[in-house]
Design goal:
The protein has 2 domains: 154 residues, Four Helix Bundle (Hemerythrin (Met), subunit A) (Up-down Bundle); 279 residues, Alpha-Beta Complex (paralog of FGE (formylglycine-generating enzyme)), CATH 3.90.1580. The chain is globular and about 65 Å long. It has 443 residues and is an alpha+beta fold.
Length: 443
């Protein structure tokens, strides 16, 4: 028999896992129950799956890993595995598949979750690398929340009556401007200790980063509007060759969902509601090429992934690398705009409690931040528990994004978490901040 302290720890872990899975399931239901069957089946953009596909795919992954693999149970629906394999069916083709209808998908998800909670209750959560520290359960909770953020992006793309609502995000409580210089030196990038960290975040390794300056805040709507007003989209010299080609082919003239009326006022469409552009919000729905062009216009550059993580995690006073900018405590509502509490970014300066020791604000939440880095493995990387999570994407045409957005759940957002996407993507909740290299006299 294990000591009482071990049993107590295991029970607390089970409670945490159950609560995390429940939170994810409630969000999935909220994002799918708010529209009718026709809208669930519809493909609102060729970039996105029908919402009903996401609903059943989430449950299918949960069944594969937690019911069959961890639990050793008989399949619930082995006949649908192929339909919900994301690598076998590209998004534009999914509406033509013989998918479960909404009622079937909901019933399937409910049955799977019931069996998973029973598996959780019986599993010792140790003795197997897949369940040590609850990893497999955490992986599936993160998978569901990542799809929930994808479904939230689908809601932003859909037309018609608004169906989502949330409180307005907070306004600034402090004025934040300028940049912060981060001194040269080593810091520990990645993690080897977070039990729910995914394979591409591992292992922890020292990285020497030259001195650099990074903006204290993400680029705001007002700042980006100055780029638009200065003809930034028409100035070939600001764009890379690929960026200019994409700008012309896609007809880019402003961030996605921005609209300008006949009086010259700018508006932004937010989940079916047309709102005046808020100047102090971080700009969102810009692709990597737009961020790159803006950086050149401003005489700066995008930060590297290592620079971003050092700015977010390194404490220059102690030399310690922390889990989050504010420390090691889990994100709270005072730290960051996460978890779909709001349906848009908060104003710059709204979360002073979430700032890093060096004074860099809103690195976590609000908007994913494009970096200049491609997506590559860390030294000593090992694919776990399957190659398709990260390894098959390494070296492709991707740019790394960091920090999470207002639509990212805390379980899928930490100082080491790595996101990646193609440089043309704008439907994701992405913005950016700027950096520059500094000389010895500034370091």
């Amino acid at each position: 028999m294990q000591p009482n302290t071990d049993r107590s720890h295991t029970e607390r872990l089970r409670d945490t896992i159950a609560a995390t899975l429940t939170r994810a399931g409630q969000r999935t239901a909220a994002l799918t129950d708010c529209v009718d069957e026709a809208e669930l089946r519809a493909q609102h953009s060729p970039l996105m799956s029908p919402l009903v596909w996401d609903l059943a795919h989430i449950a299918n992954q949960e069944e594969l890993w937690l019911v069959r693999d961890v639990g050793g149970r008989e399949p619930v629906r082995a006949d649908i595995d192929d339909l919900y394999d994301a690598f076998k069916h590209a998004r534009p083709n999914r509406p033509r598949l013989p998918l479960l209808d909404p009622a079937e998908a909901r019933a399937y998800a409910g049955t799977v979750r019931e069996k998973v909670l029973d598996v959780l209750e019986r599993n010792p959560l140790r003795g197997n690398v897949l369940v040590e520290g609850g990893f497999a359960f955490g992986m599936i909770a993160q998978h569901e929340q990542q799809h929930d953020e994808t479904m939230l992006a689908t809601h932003q793309l859909r037309t018609g009556t608004a169906v989502l609502s949330a409180p307005t995000p907070p306004v600034a409580t402090t004025v934040v401007r300028g940049e912060v210089v981060i001194p040269a030196g080593d810091f520990t990038m990645g993690t080897s200790t977070d039990p729910w960290a995914l394979d591409n975040e591992r292992p922890a390794h020292p990285v020497r980063v030259p001195a650099f300056a990074i903006d204290a805040t993400p680029v705001s709507n007002a700042q980006y509007l100055a780029f638009v007003a200065d003809g930034g989209y028409d100035r070939r010299e600001l764009w890379s060759e690929r960026g200019w080609s994409h700008r012309r082919e896609a007809g880019l003239t402003a961030p996605q969902f921005w609209e300008r009326d006949s009086d010259g006022q700018w508006w932004r469409r937010v989940f079916g509601v047309r709102r005046p552009l808020r100047p102090e919000q971080p700009v969102v729905h810009v692709c990597w090429f737009e961020a790159e062009a803006y950086a050149k216009w401003a005489g700066r550059r995008l930060p590297t992934e290592a620079e971003w993580e050092k700015a977010a995690r390194y404490d220059p006073d102690t030399g310690r690398t922390r889990a989050y900018p504010w420390g090691d405590a889990d994100p709270g509502p005072e730290h960051a705009n996460l978890g779909q509490r709001h349906l848009e970014p908060a104003d710059i300066g709204a979360y002073p409690a979430g700032a890093s020791p060096a004074g860099v604000h809103q690195l976590i939440g609000d908007v994913w931040e494009w970096t200049s880095s491609g997506f590559h493995p860390y030294p000593g990387f090992r694919a776990f528990p399957y190659r398709e999570y990260s390894e098959v994407f390494f070296g492709g045409d991707y740019r790394v994004l960091r920090g999470g957005s207002f639509g990212t759940d805390p379980v899928a957002c930490r100082g080491t978490f790595r996101n990646w996407d193609h440089p043309i993507r704008r439907q994701i909740f992405a913005g950016f901040r700027l950096a520059r290299t500094v000389g010895p006299e500034e370091a």
